[in-house]
Write a structure and sequence with these properties.
280 residues, alpha/beta, Nucleotidyltransferase, domain 5, 2 domains, 5-stranded mixed β-sheet, 4-stranded mixed β-sheet, 12 helices, 9 strands, elongated, Retrovirus_Pol_polyprotein
Length: 280
């Protein structure tokens, strides 16, 4: 052969002189198709922003705070000019590196996918808004995923909910059951225009369902008596404060049949969450 050579692989980061032809963007190389794609992207992002539960004033304030926040402004610069290697990043900016593929800047706003990135000095207010209804950790995280993001958001939500004084005060302290049919949860639900009574055993997760017609407390009690006759009497029955449960008839029923009827607080309905989750 005329030439004799050895092929050796060199990682791209070790090549100091890059291949000009493959890396240099030629003037006029942006095609009409590229322009159409960018226009479609802008339309999509605008639609996402319009669907977020925020006001135009809040978005204006958010733009100003993003620019004044040293971390977020640096992240926005990287989104526009390119990201360095992770080991070249300093401080909190490192926490954004793993999400760099979905971070973008649009009309002065920093987005993570379709969620607004919130700067540090606005986060406490956002957390308070997320936990406004005193929902549990799972529900609060679901609310956050609809609109906002920042590094460590999930852990901060958990900490906020677990340390919330109102949630601690209102949380029902029912001892864990030691045997089947000791603690029960009951709730009502509707499926295909029909109403049902739902009862779940907290120990075994065994479920009983009875159709209700009508949904008056007297009818609920009749079905509870039937369920108790088949399975035995519980020590504790946990329900929400629906009119079928928070009534004198139910209190008399619990007294006559010697079980404790515990209702969740109107401000803390998730304390009856086991029966509600079991319906999903």
């Amino acid at each position: 052969m005329r030439y004799s050579y050895t092929i050796r692989h060199i990682p791209g980061k070790s090549i100091t002189t890059a291949n000009t032809l493959s890396r240099l963007l030629l003037a006029g190389s942006v095609t009409p198709k590229d322009n159409d794609l960018m226009e479609d992207t802008d339309i999509y992002v605008d639609a996402v922003l319009e669907g977020l539960p925020t006001s135009s004033k809040y978005l204006t304030d958010l733009r100003e705070q993003l620019q004044s926040d040293s971390v977020c402004s640096q992240v926005m610069k990287f989104c526009a000019e390119g990201w360095p290697d992770r080991n070249q990043l300093q401080g909190v900016v490192k926490h954004y590196w793993s999400e760099r593929a979905v971070l973008s800047v649009h009309n002065g706003l920093l987005l993570c996918g379709t969620r607004l990135v919130i700067p540090a000095n606005m986060r406490n207010a956002v957390l308070d808004k997320i936990h406004e209804g005193h929902q549990g950790v799972v529900k609060c995280r679901e609310r956050a995923r609809q609109a906002v993001w920042w590094p460590g958001l999930s852990n901060q939500i958990s900490e906020l909910v677990l340390k919330c004084r109102l949630c601690i005060q209102e949380r029902i302290k029912v001892r864990e059951p030691e045997r089947p049919w000791q603690n029960l949860g009951a709730d009502l639900f509707t499926l295909k225009d029909k109403n049902y009574l739902f009862v779940v055993d907290y120990f075994s997760r065994y479920v009983e369902i009875a159709q209700l017609s009508p949904t008056r407390s007297a009818n609920v009690i009749v079905h509870l008596k039937s369920i108790f006759a088949r399975n035995g009497m519980p020590e504790v029955l946990i329900t929400d404060n629906g009119p079928q449960f928070a009534c004198q008839e139910m209190r008399d029923f619990a007294k006559d049949y010697c079980f404790e009827h515990v209702t969740s607080s109107p401000r803390y309905p998730q304390s009856n969450g086991k029966s509600e989750r079991q319906q999903l």
